[in-house]
Design goal:
Elements (H helix, E strand, L loop, with lengths): L7 H30 L8 E3 L2 E2 H5 L10 H4 L10 H15 L5 H28 L5 H33 L1
Antiparallel strand pairs: 1-2
Length: 168
């Protein structure tokens, strides 16, 4: 165990997953902003007509999951790029992941379920509405599922530790 009571394996896995998630989110934001400033910009992840991350990031669903603009204007401050939401999510996962408390574990699991639901929703949009394949997007979906698994293991481990402590 590390000094904060978080198992070393979990600390390492969480750091790796959050680092990957942050890197993917920052890259996605870079691509979106570059494309907005220069419509001719071609990102490294634009591999073909139907394999284009910039097409996805600049679509309606690339901001606020395509849902926020239903309730506000397209240019509303509430309608942030999904990549910004990802940066916040992975930073919170990394920070709260250092705490060995049941409240932190509950938040980590809950927010992971939300991220996985968002991933499934966006994967459906990607495949059936946009008809595209986005390497960066699919990579973030994988990171989100792996973080959910890690957080569920954390929650189970904390519950087991609490039960053992009560028996002693």
């Amino acid at each position: 165990m590390s000094s904060a009571g978080v198992p070393k394996w979990e600390y390492r896995v969480r750091f790796l997953l959050c680092f990957l998630g942050l890197a993917l989110s920052v890259y996605a934001l870079h691509v979106e902003l570059s494309r907005e400033n220069d419509p001719e910009y071609r990102a490294m992840c634009d591999l073909g007509r139907s394999v284009s991350c910039s097409k996805v990031f600049t679509s309606r669903w690339g901001r606020g999951f395509g849902l926020v603009q239903i309730f506000t204007s397209k240019d509303s401050v509430l309608n942030q790029p999904n990549s910004v939401l990802g940066i916040v999510f992975y930073a919170l996962q990394l920070g709260l992941g250092q705490l060995a408390s049941s409240r932190a574990a509950l938040f980590l699991v809950g927010s992971s379920w939300v991220s996985v639901a968002g991933s499934v929703y966006l994967a459906i949009i990607l495949a059936f509405v946009l008809g595209d394949f986005c390497v960066v997007c699919v990579s973030t979906y994988i990171v989100n599922f792996a973080l959910l698994y890690t957080n569920l293991k954390r929650r189970t481990g904390l519950e087991g530790r609490l039960k053992r402590a009560k028996r002693q």
